[in-house]
Amino acid sequence: MGYVTMRSRAIASGGGDARNLHSLPSYYGANAAMMIAIPSLLVMVLWMLLQPMVIQNTVIKLIPDQMVSEGSSVGLVMSDVRRIADGLDAAVAQGAMSGQEAAGLDAVETDVRSRLADVGVALGSDVQAPILAAAQKYRLLSQSWRAAMVAVVLVMALAGLGFAYRQTDKDFRARNVVEAGVKGLLIIAASLAILTTVGIVFSMLFESINFFRMHPWQDFFLGGSWAPNFRGNSDLSILPLLWGTLYISFIALLVAVPIGLFAASYFREYAGPKVRSAAKPLLESLAGIPTIVYGLFALLTVGPFLVNIFGRGDNGVLGVDWMSGATSVLTAGLVMGIMLIPFVSSLSDDIINAVPQSLRDGSYGLGATHSETVRQVILPAALPGIVGAILLAASRAIGETMIVVLGAGAIARFSGNPFEGMTTITTRIVSQLTGDTDFASAETLVAFALGLTLFVLTLALNVLALYIVRRYREQYE
């Protein structure tokens, strides 16, 4: 509405002729839309961020300190309060509670329990009256804050409309204002990735500092075993996990890089249009398969297949007994390599296609064959991009979890035997944060130290790749 109104007002201020305006009529409408939407959305976002904290600080005062100090954290208590408040809303919506009960919870607790049970909200026997009162307070405050937010947002929208109305005139430089606003939005969008990365790093850094206050860093970085024990006296060394991560990733890259690079070379330099249009999408479809499906494939198909070849003694294909179970480094590495093939192939295909045609023509002019041109000219010229594709595949392999869980097992150890089960850093992060864990213990906080170390490792690989890319780019420019 603001867009149409201000556009019409601008044309009217120019005597009905858009040629008398400083800017196109659409800019006046866009300026009005920005004045209405941006302040309103900003207020709404800030309101939604502050509202839960204000309500929690108000409601938590109704909970006796003894209930929080007896083992339940503030987060757990507030989780119960929110759950019950949602049940109260559902009961009121379905008419299961009377107006008196909805207003003040004057009814006895058993009656409240029975009415909440009617709408599918079950309360445990340990829920006490202060929790119920806090839930009612939480519900009332949430409703009040939502109503206030709607009112404030509407006021801001009307204020923006009024400001745009005063601005709109044939001499107003609407185009400059709109372009400056769009530029600011683009800067904010570009900054989000950087700010998100900084936020992730700091969130892991602070929790990692708390972990190293509880657990010696010498044991984490220099120890030789991983044996978490939530009762204390845990061995929390990253080295066995790091070895398993790099070992499985290395095997995956051994599978993915040659196949992906050869596939890209064939599709770009040798395959005809019909073959390329049919085979390339089929290969790239491997990237769309969920990793849990790859994990099941590793557990149910690849693992037993490898056991039949490298295990079962005299009953096996090779008559050896190297592999005792379906979960192993080789199982996870092979399946992960299959998953990474489209990453390497698609990126390498685009990179090979970007090699200037003049290099090909010059090679042919010197008498080189097609294969010699691909091997000695095209691939070396595309090497910096290919290195980037390999590093991207390596980062994907290092961060994989489900294939490792189902294909490699969960044992942290140092071993060079690819037929044994191992685990990775990502798998242990999930394990340490799963279940009813105490975030004040070293056994839980170690997940953040593992994540920060993995981030630093990936960053180091990217810096190394950047150095290699720049070096080869200088050589082929």
Class derived from helix and strand content: mainly alpha
In which range does the helix fraction lie?
over 70%
Please give the domain count: 2
Average residue pLDDT: 81
Strand order of the largest sheet: 1-2
CATH-derived topology of the largest domain = MetI-like fold
How many individual helices? 19
The low-confidence parts are: 96-112, 115-125
Distance between the termini: 55 Å
CATH class of the largest domain: Mainly Alpha
- Tell me the total number of β-strands: 2
CATH superfamily of the largest domain: MetI-like
Q: Percent of residues in beta strands?
A: under 5%
Order of helices and strands: HHHHHHHHHEEHHHHHHHHHH
Biggest sheet descriptor: 2 strands, antiparallel
Shape: flat
Question: In angstroms, what is the radius of gyration?
Answer: 31 Å
Query: What is the architecture of the largest domain at the second tier of CATH?
Result: Orthogonal Bundle
Describe this structure in words.
The protein is an all-alpha fold and 477 residues long. It has two domains: 2-172, no CATH class; 226-476, MetI-like (MetI-like fold, Orthogonal Bundle), CATH 1.10.3720.10. The chain is 73% helix and 1% strand. The protein has 19 helices and two strands. It has helices at residues 2-13, 25-59, 65-69, 74-93, 99-104, 109-118, 129-167, 174-214, 217-222, 239-270, 273-284, 291-310, 329-353, 357-365, 370-381, 383-398, 402-407, 425-433, 442-476; strands spanning 226-227, 235-236. Strands 1-2 form a two-stranded antiparallel ribbon. β1 and β2 (235-236) form a beta hairpin. α10 crosses α13. It is flat, with a radius of gyration of 31 Å. The two termini are 55 Å apart. The model is unreliable at 96-112 and 115-125 (pLDDT under 50).
